[in-house]
Amino acid sequence: MKPIIEIRSLNKSYEDYQVLYNLSLKIWPGELICVIGPSGCGKSTLLNLIGGFVKGDQGEILLNGLLVEKPSRKCIMVFQEFDQLFSWQTVRHNIEFPLKKAPDRLTNQEIRTRVNHYLAMVNLSDFGDYYPNQLSGGMKQRTALARALALSPQLLLMDEPFGSLDAQTKRDLQDTLLKIKEKTRATTVFVTHDIREALYLADRIVVLRAGTVAAVIKNQSRNVSETRVAEITALLSP
C-alpha cells in the first residue's frame, strides 16, 4: 500500500522565523492522524502546506504521488471558527453550494440525495432548513463537516475543529467523527492541543516540537489513561 500523503524534508519560514524544519512524514489511506504540539510549533502551518494554501521553502508534499502545488477539491479543510458557514444560506444550501460548483456536474436530484446522506451522517436530518444563527456551535461544526464530506475528498484536514465547544458537545462530535471514519474510511489529519482528544481519536499521534516530528505514536488501543497522557506530555517538553 502506498501512502496517500508523503512529506519529504519540508521547510517553511516566515521572515526570520523557522516554523518547520526538515519535516518528513507518511500518512496512509484511511488513517486518522492527530497532530499535537505546543503553540507555535507549526501544526496549523503544516495543515496549510498539505492543503496547498501556502508553499514550502524547501522539500515537497505528494498527494497520491502527485506534487501538491495549490488547493484542490481533493483536500478539504474544516476550521475551528463557527463563521465558516454562509450566514445567509440554510444548512442544506451550505452543503449544496460546493456541489453545484463541482466540475462533475451532478444533477439536482443527485445533489439532493448526497446532501440528505451527509445530513443524516452528522445527525442533522431535521435541521436542513435552519440558518447558521439558529444553530448551536456543535451543529455548525456538524454542518461544516457534512459540507466537506459531501465533496468526497481524498483527504480531510481539521484544524482544532472542536476546540471551542463545551466538553459534552466535544465528545459527541468526536464520536460522530469516529463513526464517519468507520463508514467512509476518510483519511483525516486532525490538529489539536488536547492530548486526551488525540488519544481518543487517533490511529497515530504525530508529536511536533521545534518545527519537526519529535515522535510518531501508534494508538490502536485508544486508551485515554493518565499514564499515557503523562508520556505524551513529556514528549512535548523541550
Question: In words, what does this structure look like?
Answer:
With 238 residues, the chain is of the alpha/beta class. Helices cover 34% and strands 26% of the residues. The chain is built from seven helices and ten strands. Strands 6-7-8-3-9-10 form a six-stranded mixed β-sheet, with helices on both faces. α2 crosses α3. The two termini are 35 Å apart.
List the helices and strands and how they pair.
Elements: E1 5-14, E2 17-27, E3 32-36, H1 43-50, E4 58-63, E5 66-67, E6 75-78, H2 91-100, H3 108-121, H4 137-150, E7 155-159, H5 167-184, E8 187-191, H6 195-201, E9 204-209, E10 212-218, H7 226-236
How would you summarize what this structure contains?
With about 240 residues, the chain is of the alpha/beta class.
Spell out the key features of this protein.
alpha/beta, 4-stranded antiparallel sheet, 238 residues, 10 strands, globular
Strand arrangement, largest sheet?
A: 6-7-8-3-9-10
pLDDT < 50 runs, ≥5 residues: none
Approximately how much beta-strand content do the residues carry?
Answer: 25-35%
Helical percent range?
25-40%
Largest sheet: 6 strands, mixed
Terminal Cα separation, in Å?
A: 35 Å
Coarse morphology:
globular
The tally of beta strands, per DSSP, is 10
Mean pLDDT: 93
Give the topology string: H per helix, E per strand. EEEHEEEHHHEHEHEEH
Please give the radius of gyration in angstroms: 18 Å
The helix-and-strand class reads alpha/beta
Number of helices, where a helix is a run of at least 4 consecutive DSSP H or I residues = 7
